[in-house]
């Protein structure tokens, strides 16, 4: 399938994850073999009214190869302006979020709420397509009020989407249960445009199961938490220097943010990085109470060498 003008046999994409897929994390995922990365969701309205607030989420590095900006909103005009926003012109394409289940997003008629309003969703997609020469994809779920993913997927295709990404859970499910791979196979069978499957890919086994749905590519989210090198593992690459990767993550963030922000922000990533290391409970407690990022790196280094 093609993404941003490049052809891929079977691309692995890093999922957009709000508060997680920062500029450093995306760079690492790309370095370790993610064929495409996606920013966390960016509000089309906020980008217009308060671009400074959005800017830090749009930072990129040269390590990041094919990259998409994910936008959300319910007003076609704002979304059209978003795809033309100067901040986003370094991206290879745009993904429209029509799958976010967060109550405050649904309440605004955005994210997965658009699955209940096919005519508005269609208008948003076609308006975005008419406003940029770059590819536009749509990410959605099984449904909000009803599980109308097949009709919704067809609407995306008819409205001009270049590809779709399908996270096969309903809004009511949140992140519980399992992604419905039969539903993914049925969407793939129905569409002519490429379909990217998403949900519960954590390792080679689950990747294989997802591939059996016939999808054209796979997007991975939670499986990469504390493990941006998952892409390298899935591509059969050994000899991963995990500590160097963690240091790189932090150094990219340091280039872009101040130490006070970093101290608070990096903690969750450090805790994810510590999963599976010896004495995990003790290690997590030390990391959670350590206020100095360099000291945290030392603690992690020690644990990794044990
Ligand atoms: C912390 C977190 C933040 C997320 N933020 C976004 C987002 O900004 N946009 C989006 O489309 N999906 C978002 N998602 C959903 C993921 O992109 C993905 O669809 C979901 O986690 C299922 O894939 P997985 O099983 O590989 O994690 C988020 C998920 C998590 C766990």
Structural account:
By secondary structure, the chain is α/β, with parallel strands linked by helices. The chain folds into 2 domains: 224 residues, TIM Barrel, CATH 3.20.20; 64 residues, no CATH class. 44% of the residues lie in helices and 14% in strands. It is built from 14 helices and 11 strands. Strands 3, 4, 5, 6, 7, 8, 9, 10 and 11 form a 9-stranded parallel sheet that branches. It has a two-stranded antiparallel ribbon with strand order 1-2. α4 packs parallel to α6, α6 packs parallel to α7 and α12 packs parallel to α14. The radius of gyration is 19 Å and the shape is globular. Bound molecules: flavin mononucleotide. The site of flavin mononucleotide (FMN) has 22 residues, from loops.
Instruction: State the helicity in percent bands.
Output: 40-55%
> Which geometry do the CA atoms define?
globular
Gyration radius (Cα, Å) is 19 Å
Structurally, how many domains make up the residues?
2
């Amino acid at each position: 399938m093609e993404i941003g003008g490049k052809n891929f046999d079977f691309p692995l994409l890093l999922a957009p994850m709000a508060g997680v897929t920062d500029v450093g994390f995306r760079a690492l995922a790309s370095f370790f073999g993610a064929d495409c990365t996606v920013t966390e969701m960016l509000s089309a309205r906020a980008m217009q009214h308060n671009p400074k607030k959005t800017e830090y989420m749009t930072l990129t590095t040269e390590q990041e190869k094919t990259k998409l900006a994910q936008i959300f909103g319910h007003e076609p005009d704002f979304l059209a302006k978003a795809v033309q926003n100067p901040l986003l012109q370094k991206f290879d394409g745009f993904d429209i979020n029509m799958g976010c289940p967060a109550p405050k997003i649904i309440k605004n008629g955005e994210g997965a709420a658009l699955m209940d309003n096919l005519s508005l969703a269609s208008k948003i997609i076609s308006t975005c397509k008419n406003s940029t020469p770059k590819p536009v994809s749509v990410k959605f779920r099984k449904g909000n009020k009803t599980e109308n993913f097949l009709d919704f997927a067809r609407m995306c295709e008819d409205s001009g989407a270049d590809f779709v990404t399908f996270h096969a859970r309903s809004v009511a499910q949140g992140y519980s249960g399992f992604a419905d791979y039969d539903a993914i196979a049925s969407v793939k069978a129905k569409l002519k445009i490429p379909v990217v499957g998403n949900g519960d890919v954590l390792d080679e086994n689950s990747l294989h199961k997802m591939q059996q749905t016939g999808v054209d590519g796979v997007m991975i989210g939670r499986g990469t938490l504390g493990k941006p090198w998952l892409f390298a593992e899935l591509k059969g690459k050994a000899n991963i220097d995990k500590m160097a990767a963690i240091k790189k993550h932090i150094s990219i963030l340091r280039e872009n943010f101040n130490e006070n922000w970093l101290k608070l922000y990096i903690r969750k990533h450090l805790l994810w990085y510590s999963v599976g290391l010896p004495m995990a409970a003790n290690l997590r407690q030390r990391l959670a109470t350590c206020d100095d990022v360099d000291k945290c790196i030392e603690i992690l280094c020690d644990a990794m060498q044990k």
